[in-house]
Amino acid sequence: MPPPHALLHRTVAGYRLTGYVGTGGMGEVFRAQHPGTGRLAAVKVLHRPELEARFRNEATVQAGIAHPNVAALLAVGQLDGRPALVMEWVEGQSLDDLIRRQGRLDSGQAGRIFVQVAGAVAHLHAQGVVHRDIKPSNVRIRPDGGAKVLDFGIAKGRFTPRLTQEGYIVGTGEYMAPEQFRNQVEPKSDVWALGVLLYELTTGHLPFEAANPLVLRSLISRGQYTDPRVLSPGLAPHLADLIARCLQPAPTKRPTAAELTRLVAAPNQPQALRWRPWAGALAALAVGLALVAWLLGSPGPGVPTPERLTDSDRERLEVHVLNADDDVQLRTPDGRVQTEEPFVVERDQGQPLTITIRHRGREQAFTIAPEVKGSYQCFFDP
Fold this sequence. Notes:
By secondary structure, the chain is α+β, with helices and mostly antiparallel strands. The chain has 3 domains: about 5-90, Phosphorylase Kinase, domain 1, CATH 3.30.200; about 95-270, Transferase(Phosphotransferase), domain 1 (Orthogonal Bundle); about 310-380, Immunoglobulin-like (Sandwich), CATH 2.60.40. The protein has helices at about 50-65, 95-100, 105-125, 185-205, 215-220, 230, 235-245, 255-265, 280-295, and strands at about 10, 15-25, 25-35, 40-45, 75-80, 80-90, 95, 140, 145-150, 315-320, 330, 335-340, 345-350, 355-360, 360-370, 375-380. The strands form 4 sheets. The protein has a 6-stranded antiparallel sheet, with helices on one face. A hairpin with a 5-residue loop joins β11 (about 330) and β12 (about 335-340). α3 packs antiparallel against α4, α3 packs antiparallel against α8 (about 255-265) and α4 (about 185-205) packs antiparallel against α7. It is elongated, with a radius of gyration of 25 Å. The two termini are about 45 Å apart. The relative contact order is 0.08. Mean pLDDT is about 80; it is low at about 165-170 and about 270-310.
């Protein structure tokens, strides 16, 4: 196989290769131009023959997608007997480069990018496609702020054949959902990746990081990460809420990509609180009952007062830090600090609780989900 630069000035499906861009997982990528129309394109030429079936699947999947936030497939061809894909050229920079240069993005900019990527993913899901590799390096940002999703190399469509050997998993570890480690991939797996992407956009950091793949998998499986508001105190509440919704270990508890686009587009109207035709009547009735109860000097039905709260409204949990045996502290939201294990915390029943663990000068926040009862175990990220 000739070196990439030796292929310059060759023609693929009418497009002349004018510059070498780099090497991807399956192919060499070139900048190209159509001599007749002047249209620019990105041309990917397969360099690993053993991946030809996956390469052709990429073409099949991408050919059926037409969306303003997805890079379009323009043509397919061959170069020296190797398959080649001709795709829309997206001017600009990768989202990965933007995050590295700028650090965390402000909530407004992050929201504008995220709603475009989530919209593209929602369209893919509507077409029966799971991308399986949503991450900043697969998103390109144009000079006008428009976002384009790229690289369908491991995407799975309705008619994608089985291309992965038993016991192997595909994807980028830090962005993979818990079920992907079990070879159980579904559209909600992309939603998890969207949550990781939004976390990275708004904090400049990954929620799950570890040099040891087994530790990384453990962190992801338990959904334990530092609260993004610790790293980005000015983070908009609705974006923090979206991250929490996406990074639910159980796929059934995550929203769909379509729901995400609605939630991020209307941050002041969370889905659970959106107005319904009967909401006004119920609200008026509730206000009326509360007013009558107040006038009579007694609390309304279902409205707890300090006098009516009992110990049964609170629950206790033991907290164990699995990988730290000395110099460990726990801080609760009210500012109280504990220095000896087992730590014991209290919270309102059915409510999440965020705690902060300090170990050897470093801090990490953990959110205890409402369904956790009795004992909670966490792994301090080394």
